[in-house]
Amino acid sequence: MNGLGIFRGLWITFKHFVDTYVEDLTYRGKRYNNPKGIQCRLKGDTRGIFTIQYPEEKMPVPEEFRFVPFLVYEEGPNGEKKQRCTSCGICAKVCPPQCIWIVRGTDPNTGRPVPEPSEFYIDVDICMNCGLCAEYCPFDAIKMDHDYEISTADRMKNNIYDIDKLSKPVSYYASIRPVNYAREVAARAEKASKKAAA
Ligand code: SF4
Ligand code: SF4
């Protein structure tokens, strides 16, 4: 019986080996390093090799995939950045491992607090990618990123993200989460029209 099992295993391996070349010929060399080829290997009924050859190739991630958070800023007509964050501190309060630090900004003339952060840090090694900060933010100012390639050799130097490293434009957010972005734009428009009508 053991001999038969080994033979069956070898037969399956051999079949995958031959199928890989057959599929490669069917796709005329376009089975690797392009989105169509990757989609073909992700299908349940794919034949031959089905592995994705990371890092040369990457699996497409679904919209709701989440890695570390980032801060969303609006882009002004002259390239100026306007953080959506008002430094309300809700995200820091709800963060289970407490890996968010925020310093509220102050008006340089009056010294009074202003609704924007002067500093914002996230320790991305402690972050557990739960997404609660993004869920609770009332201003859609913090969102979960898709970028998972953040390995580094120096954690203390590179993995405590400051406001510059955390900030990304709203256009980036719209590109990685188009459905969420469209829903939020529609909700804001509805709220604005109700306010105008009242
Ligand atoms: S990211 Fe959102 S929840 Fe966090 S401080 Fe800024 S506005 Fe408040
Ligand atoms: S994703 Fe979760 S753990 Fe990470 S900063 Fe947000 S609330 Fe904290």
Ends: how far apart?
80 Å
Report the sheet-strand fraction: 15-25%
Oligomeric assembly: single chain
- Shape field: elongated
| Secondary structural class | alpha+beta
Number of strands: 7
Q: How many helices in DSSP terms?
A: 8
Query: Average pLDDT across residues?
Result: 93
Low-confidence sequence ranges: none
Helix content: 25-40%
Radius of gyration: 24 Å
Q: Main sheet, how many strands, which sense, barrel?
A: 4 strands, mixed
* Heteromolecules bound: iron/sulfur cluster
H-E order: HHEEHEEHEHEHEHH
Describe the overall structure.
- The protein is of the alpha+beta class and 198 residues long.
- It is built from 8 helices and 7 strands, in the order H-H-E-E-H-E-E-H-E-H-E-H-E-H-H.
- It has helices spanning 2-26, 35-42, 90-94, 132-136, 155-158, 163-166, 170-176, 178-197; strands at residues 69-75, 81-83, 100-106, 113-123, 142-144, 160-161, 167-169.
- The strands form 2 sheets. Strands 1, 2, 5 and 7 form a 4-stranded mixed β-sheet that branches.
- Strand 3 and strand 4 form a beta hairpin.
- Helix 7 (170-176) crosses helix 8 (178-197).
- The longest helix is centred in the N-terminal third of the chain and has 25 residues, at 2-26.
- The protein is elongated and about 80 Å long.
- The termini are far apart.
- The model has no long low-confidence stretch (mean pLDDT 93).
